[in-house]
Amino acid sequence: MTPRSWLFLFCAVSLLGQPRPSPLDESAFQKVLAAHKGQVVLFDFWATWCEPCRVELPLLIRLEAKYRSRGLKLITVSCDEPEQELDAAKFLGQHQAPGPAYIKRVKDDERFIDSIDPQWSGALPALFLYDRQGRKVKSYIGETDLAALEAAIRKLL
């Protein structure tokens, strides 16, 4: 077996049971949002190369676990490049992130960003909070005050 084959085998075996992010574009985003009507949804846009994202994501996972029974759903969207998809899947698995997990795959980045929030520059981390009717209630760009986020979530539950 060649060294490249061993590397592929190692990566494949190490990812067994880990959430594999599904591709997400503008239309898929709208379908995911519609599929979760009736729940309070927190979309987390993050990347493995973003240190604040790597710190924040485990905290968001705990927050979702705390309020899951009351209707909170965390949906992660990796903004990593295709060559980092395995890293994103590994990070999600290490932190036991609940599904669904997505990875941004778009033809036009600006159009995608504007479809999520016209005020968003694409900076990470980015959180978007939706009420049970699927309406965006709040956007959090950059490092987020988790106490303020939790207070906003509690109001919607």
Word description of this protein:
- With 157 residues, the protein is α/β, with parallel strands linked by helices.
- The protein has a single domain, classed as Glutaredoxin.
- 43% of the residues lie in helices and 20% in strands.
- It has 6 helices and 6 strands.
- The protein has helices at 3-14, 26-35, 51-67, 85-94, 109-116, 146-156; strands spanning 22-24, 40-46, 72-78, 101-104, 126-130, 136-141.
- A 6-stranded mixed sheet has the order 1-4-3-2-5-6, with helices on both faces.
- Strand 5 and strand 6 (136-141) form a beta hairpin.
- Residues 2-16 have low confidence and may be disordered.
- The end-to-end distance, rounded to whole angstroms, is 54 Å
Poorly predicted regions are: 2-16
CATH architecture: 3-Layer(aba) Sandwich
Give the % helix.
Answer: 40-55%
Q: What about the largest sheet?
A: 6 strands, mixed
Can you lay out the helices and strands and say which pair or pack?
Layout: H1 3-14, E1 22-24, H2 26-35, E2 40-46, H3 51-67, E3 72-78, H4 85-94, E4 101-104, H5 109-116, E5 126-130, E6 136-141, H6 146-156
Short description:
By secondary structure, the protein is of the alpha/beta class.
Give short descriptive properties of this protein.
globular; 157 residues; single chain; alpha/beta
